[in-house]
Amino acid sequence: MLTFWFAPGASSMATHIALHEVGAQFDARPVSFARKQNKTPEFLALNPEGKVPTLSIDGRVLTEVAGTLFYLARRFPDAGLLPEGDIEAEAQVVSWMSFIASTVHPARRVGAARLHEVFRIAEQKLRGRTWTVGDYSIADIHLFRLFWRWMDSGGPEPGTFPGLSAHYERMMARPAVRRVLEIESAIGYQLPA
Ligand SMILES: N[C@@H](CCC(=O)N[C@@H](CS)C(=O)NCC(=O)O)C(=O)O
């Protein structure tokens, strides 16, 4: 049994997309930051960091976007969200997700110049590729959420990041992405940092 705590528009959107991509059955639990539902004793007992995504697998808690994406890709291999039987490609997916979590995600709080700088790096890494690593993977979902966040709050000047913009459009065309955006926007984005 999978139980998924998420806040509309937050980092948990990546996990939410993956849950839809793999076709998993799950119990969705929206968390309101405005009402501080992520700071209640009940929620902090689940995730002491008070953050989303938080996923429970038969009562065992898994946190962090990269961890939850990796779990879903491995648990539902038919969805093809991880390169199979290719250690180096799999390591590239982990490398992208580490870069996204440790370099891209914190940039927003630093400011606009840093945000441009990290997305310039992402643009360079993506150059000439349709997806981050070979076929579509969890790294693309992770990257998309961060770029979507920027686009949703105005985004870069059109034409600044052609590779990332094309990647964004490909992601926006995916039924799982459209469905999650529909669900989360109906609840109301909270747009945290
Ligand atoms: N390193 C975490 C970051 C998750 C994260 O920052 N979540 C934010 C929303 S985007 C959150 O839950 N913030 C609530 C808070 O800090 O109070 C991951 O990759 O999952």
Protein topology:
Elements (H helix, E strand, L loop, with lengths): L1 E5 L5 H11 L4 E4 L10 H6 L7 E4 L2 E4 L1 H11 L11 H24 L1 H15 L11 H15 L9 H11 L2 H13 L6
Parallel strand pairs: 1-2
Antiparallel strand pairs: 1-3, 3-4
Helix pairs in contact: 1-3, 1-6, 1-8, 4-5, 4-6, 6-7
The protein binds glutathione.
Walk me through what this model shows.
Strand 3 (54-57) and strand 4 form a beta hairpin. The chain is α+β, with helices and mostly antiparallel strands and 193 residues long. Strands 2-1-3-4 form a 4-stranded mixed sheet, with helices on one face. The protein is globular, with a radius of gyration of 16 Å. Helix 4 packs parallel to helix 6. It has helices at 12-22, 41-46, 65-75, 87-110, 112-126, 138-152, 162-172, 175-187; strands at 2-6, 27-30, 54-57, 60-63. The structure holds glutathione. Glutathione binds next to loops. Glutathione binds at residues 10-11, 33, 38, 50-53, 64-65, 101, 192.
> Based on helices, strands and strand pairing, what is the structural class?
alpha+beta
Q: Assign the CATH architecture of the largest domain.
A: 3-Layer(aba) Sandwich
Strand order of the largest sheet: 2-1-3-4
State the CATH class of the largest domain. Answer: Alpha Beta
Q: List low-confidence stretches.
A: none
Bulk shape: globular
Computed CA radius of gyration, to the nearest angstrom: 16 Å
Total number of domains:
2
- According to CATH, the homologous superfamily of the largest domain is Glutaredoxin
Sketch the major β-sheet: 4 strands, mixed
User: Helical amount among residues, as a percent range?
Assistant: 40-55%
Distance between the termini: 30 Å
Number of strands: 4
CATH topology annotation of the largest domain: Glutaredoxin
The mean pLDDT is 96
What is the beta-strand fraction?
5-15%
Q: How many H/I helices?
A: 8
Query: What order do the helices and strands follow?
Result: EHEHEEHHHHHH
Bound molecules: glutathione
